[in-house]
Specification:
5-stranded mixed β-sheet, about 0% helix, 6-stranded mixed β-sheet
Length: about 180
């Protein structure tokens, strides 16, 4: 009889920062798993992020957080922003992947779900994505927001300033290519 085994790499021994967690910026295309650690992306100061945006476009801000202790169900919220930008908070959920006839599996990112909370457990990395949709008629300029993660008691354990610089450019979606 065969037993299933996880083929994911073991976690490294990165030490959590003073807040009890590691946090680092990631890309939307990065495969962040429960075992992910910052490696060379480790921050040595507070995290803040900025993006450039065009009219009618979506821009994601993605972070990974790896708690060094159990925080429990933490609330996610956004502060700031304006009517020109609709922002949603999503959390990446994981799934198991394995080939046909194989018992070995990998834990991989599966879906991005809009959520108002995330369960932050010790040594399990979670990816949080703030997706900003810029209105077609938005005013050019900077929109400042802050992603806030509150512990179950309501205390802010993480604040990430987000700056979206909107440019008065509208991409032309007309194309000769059949898609």
């Amino acid at each position: 009889r065969k037993a299933a085994i996880c083929r994911d790499k073991p976690t490294s021994k990165d030490e959590p920062n003073i807040g009890g967690y590691l946090v680092w910026p990631v890309g939307i295309e990065d495969a962040i798993t429960p075992n992910s650690t910052p490696g060379k992306a480790r921050l040595h100061g507070p995290l803040s992020m900025s993006r450039l945006a065009a009219l009618g476009e979506y821009e994601p801000f993605c972070i990974a957080i790896r708690p060094g202790k159990d925080f429990g169900a933490c609330q996610l919220r956004l502060e700031g922003g304006n009517d020109d930008v609709k922002a949603t908070i999503g959390v990446v959920w994981y799934g198991m992947s394995r080939g046909f006839g194989m018992v070995a599996y990998n834990v991989v990112p599966h879906t991005l779900r809009t959520q108002s909370s995330v369960d932050l457990r010790k040594d399990i990395t979670r990816e949080i994505v703030v997706t900003c949709r810029v209105a077609d008629n938005a005013k050019a300029g900077d929109v400042n927001m802050t992603l806030v993660v509150n512990d179950p008691k309501g205390e802010a354990i993480l604040r990430v300033p987000l700056k979206l610089s909107i440019h008065a450019v509208k991409p032309n979606r007309d194309t000769d290519y059949c898609m």
